[in-house]
Amino acid sequence: MDADVIVVGAGLAGLVAAHELTSRGRRVALVDQENAANLGGQAFWSFGGLFLVDSPEQRRLGVKDSLDLAWNDWQGSAGFDRLDDEDSWAVRWARAYVEFAAGEKRVWLEGHGIKLLPTVGWAERGDLRADGHGNSVPRFHIAWGTGTGVVEPFVRYARQAARDGLLTFLHRHRVDELVLEQGAARGVRGTVLAPDDAPRGVAASRGAVGTFELPAQAVIVPSGGTGAAHDVVRRHWPARLGTPPARMVTGVPAYVDGRMLDISARAGVRLVNRDRMWHYTEGVRNWDPVWPGHGIRILPGPSSMWFDALGRRLPDPCLPGYDTLGTLRHLRTTEDIAGYDHSWFVLSRRIVEKEFALSGSEQNPDITAKDRRAVLRDRVLGKGAPGPVQAFLDRGADFVVADTLEWLVEKMNGLTDEPLLDADLMRRQIRARDLQIDNPYAKDAQVQGIRNARRYLGDRLGRVAAPHRILDPAAGPLIGVKLHVLTRKTLGGIQTDLDSRALGADGTPVDGLYAAGEVAGFGGGGVHGYNALEGTFLGGCLFSGRAAGRAAAQQTA
Ligand SMILES: Cc1cc2nc3c(=O)[nH]c(=O)nc-3n(C[C@H](O)[C@H](O)[C@H](O)COP(=O)(O)OP(=O)(O)OC[C@H]3O[C@@H](n4cnc5c(N)ncnc54)[C@H](O)[C@@H]3O)c2cc1C
């Protein structure tokens, strides 16, 4: 088939771009190194959290949000400080994206049949400063069907376009080179990989059976980030985050390998903000791994106590669900703990039951399957921890449970090479925190935060345990969770203009070349700046993939 446009990557951004093209009658070659089972890329595995501003869901829960407030939060989080250079397009993308999230986004999602849960989560509560990082209000809307539901319509459109003869799937085709003619992108070259019927997400072989070359008038690169390539993560790890851990768990499938970034650079494309990345500090080893080193991120409520490897409570704002990179920075730059790769949550059974959620579509099978009855049974009426959380309590290598603190600490010490934790020290800190619980006000910032959270209806009903003493036996048993750094998102990448045109070294667009999704820093080469507000990655793929598809369709008209 002769393609008008080649799309390199069949993740969410690529599928959205392909839909924009085929719905305008363009012929698309959709090329991916993985097999057909992996259609949809990371988005299929994602939790489906979507950042929206001033939505009906927020309003129903009494949240007063606005474009002004969201833009203030975005700027405080992003901290754009390369405005004349690497952030020059990122900041424009940021403004356009926040306007999209406060305006057209919800209707556009609805138009594709994507519905939202009535609850709105409060992710990245921030660094405790009005002009600093974080969401002033809850904005994390979960798609009905999780990320699997977000990607589903675009998979359906692609399959229909293939039946209509407008789209050709080229699975197991790995692009190794962008072909440029007189400075214009005119095709790709690569390797045909051996057939491999590995199930979705499982690392497939890289054995080659041939080569290929495809011509087209334009090429879109939506090839994802670098989260599975720990060597690449380490290479770009910024000094401000200290030293990278010797061992990390991996929050993305192996195909999130970042190769296309270097391939694009070799074609003259400008890569920016590569030192910006988004890794989580609440990763646990998956007891039932799909991809190599598979880690799951705990989406914590605000009540667990957080301790470093030596058993000292983390300082504010290193609180669960507040400031992801602030916590990472603390763990990696504090001299006497930077040599250890882990930290700890200590909590009660009451907290785990109400507050623990796990990120990922497969960890939320009720929402992913759009099974209303199961959601009601397990999350609203059910007693005890949700099934997937209970499975980690029972089988997760990083979870220990005990009736007394001394016993718990002994078990926690059993999970490290040397016994680093002292039960007396931990008891003193937990007791001091517990003494703050009896009054409706307190001097402890975390306890204040719990009470603040419970003034929001969504948190009180579904997400934040009633304040109680962690050492109260009635709230027990006690739980300890060993936390690892989990690699996930790449915040920088290919610099693009607002039409998702890839820019060259001189800052002007490379004719016929576009980039979208994570490889483009979710737009502009880093729409998030230094910090994300969460739920902004899927949306960034939708928004930048749409822009790329529309612009490429116009170019090839
Ligand atoms: C478990 C999990 C939970 C998440 N939860 C959320 C959430 O709640 N909210 C949110 O906003 N975001 C979330 N994310 C992040 C979000 O899912 C991703 O950032 C987004 O889906 C990336 O999409 P993409 O299209 O840019 O890239 P990808 O999905 O990575 O797709 C890129 C595709 O390109 C292919 N490719 C790469 N290189 C080549 C090459 N050289 N040749 C051919 N093909 C190539 C890959 O095989 C892949 O199929 C989550 C991610 C994970 C893994």
From TrEMBL:
Species whose genome carries this gene: Streptomyces galbus
The FAD-dependent oxidoreductase 2 FAD-binding domain, residue ranges: 4-538
Q: Which NCBIfam families match?
A: PRK12834.1
Instruction: Spell out the protein name for this chain.
Output: FAD-binding dehydrogenase
Pfam families in alphabetical order: FAD_binding_2 (PF00890)
Keywords recorded for this protein, A-Z: Flavoprotein, Oxidoreductase
Checking InterPro entries in the record gives: FAD-dep_OxRdtase_2_FAD-bd, FAD/NAD-bd_sf, KsdD_DH, Succ_DH/fumarate_Rdtase_cat_sf
Q: Which residues form the signal peptide?
A: none
